[in-house]
Write a structure and sequence with these properties.
Largest sheet: 2 strands, antiparallel
Structural class: mainly alpha
Shape: globular
Order of helices and strands: HEEHHHHHEEH
Distance between the termini: 21 Å
Number of strands: 4
Strand content: 5-15%
Radius of gyration: 15 Å
Strand order of the largest sheet: 1-2
Length: 146
């Protein structure tokens, strides 16, 4: 399964495109569509390079998410889980209660877990609250978010 075009658009819009390296609220350098890791102060990329980095990361995340899931999920559920993983990383999602609930087929309890993933540097962050609300909606409804 792949991130839907609607999910990709939402991911791009909420992260924004940054062609010159910046620091996030936790102090980590990022560039492109929230690409981390090999980024340092002063680094610059083109829009095409940002799109390529995002595609590479999504391929990796999709492969990992597919390996975590033991039950079929809807496109909305897939998109929501992938976007959460994009914010919090593969390892944290893999070991999460949320994934355990998904794999048990308890989608209501899984959806309730989204509201717990809202912290930045140990404090609730309003942007993360908004993101999780959208993802929870996608997860439960499988609907398109405008």
């Amino acid at each position: 399964m792949r991130l839907s075009p609607t999910g990709l658009d939402l991911l791009k819009r909420r992260n924004g495109l940054t062609l010159k390296a910046r620091q996030d609220p936790a102090g980590t350098w990022f560039i492109g569509y929230a690409h981390y890791g090999d980024v340092s102060e002063g680094m610059e990329i083109t829009e095409a390079e940002a799109a390529a980095k995002l595609e590479h990361e999504l391929d990796r995340f999709e492969t990992q998410l597919a390996g975590m899931l033991q039950v079929p999920v809807s496109q909305g559920q897939w998109d929501a889980l992938l976007m959460l993983m994009f914010d919090y990383g593969i390892a944290r999602i893999r070991s999460s209660i949320l994934i355990r609930h998904v794999n048990a087929g308890d989608f209501e309890r899984a959806a309730a877990e989204f509201s717990k993933w809202v912290q930045v540097r140990g404090r609730p962050d309003i942007q993360m609250v908004k993101r999780r609300d959208i993802e929870r909606h996608l997860f439960l409804q499988g609907s398109q978010v405008a």
